[in-house]
Specification:
Radius of gyration: 17 Å
Number of helices: 6
Low-confidence stretches: none
Shape: globular
Structural class: alpha/beta
Strand content: 25-35%
Distance between the termini: 30 Å
Largest sheet: 9 strands, mixed
Length: 240
Amino acid sequence: MRPLKQTDVDVVILCGGKGTRLSEVVRDRPKPMSEINGRSFLDILIGYVSGFGFKRFILSVGYKADYIKDYYKNNRFSFEILFSRENEPLGTAGGVKQAENLVQSNPFLVMNGDSFCPVDLLQFLDFHSKKGALVSVVVVESEDARDFGTICLDDSQRIVRFEEKKGRGKSFINAGIYLFQKEVFSLIPSHVRYSLEHDLFPTLVDQKFYGYVTQEKLIDIGTPERYEQAKRILHHKDTM
């Protein structure tokens, strides 16, 4: 696999979820646009990623899609932003599949739009390339894995087990940041609800499916409590 340049790698950000658990405190906008100290969470995420030199972003939108589209169409940025719209909820893998006709690079980066992990994305890209991976997942260690996908790695960092939201206690968890080869599109059915975590990943454990371990912390805004925690943590981080 030839050396990869981040400037050539597309970034798909999954922004289509309804964010039901957060809706009691964020009612007027989609979850990724939740305000964090005067900025939207999605702005913080895109700002961090573009800081590594990534220049082409595809936002997979669904719930309150026009809120996101209007914001990014009406502001000027130094990078390209495209939109892939779900007319009905398709799940995380379905959202990736929906964006297939917009993705130009191989591999491409995929990120959840409601979580942030300050991993070195250039090192992650290098890891994926050197492993010759089909799919690579950023994994972090968590003291309590009940709300996250738990991951087991072998000595080569290949993922040998992936269980979504079944773990208890300390374990490796899915940080919601992935590198995919375009071959993955053929493994996701079209126009149906399909999950990366529940449907796709468990089928990949016998393939070139690797976990990139980082010591960085995962920040997500999936619940009111974690949203408040994200505000405190990101207030002290320079994410740009």
